[in-house]
Amino acid sequence: MLPHPKGEAESIALAFHECELGLMRLPLDELDQDARHWVEQLRGLMDTDGIPESPRGTWFVKASQLTVDDQMTLSHVVDELAHWFARHRDDELR
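RE: above sequence
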């Protein structure tokens, strides 16, 4: 997801949008404890409660406020979820 020609915050905001689309209809009861935990972490990182409206969007503002540790957590959580879904997709195809 990085680098983005408009900057890191823009890249992260776009990733938030893609994650939201992926999580929109995700039945949490079909996930194991690890996957549910990663989804909760992801939603926490994406949470814009208390973020002021901005012409660039609240996810952009949120993304620009993430610490390096938050960014590393975001990257880790997205990777873990991607691997989890790939494993379970492969299991279903067998």
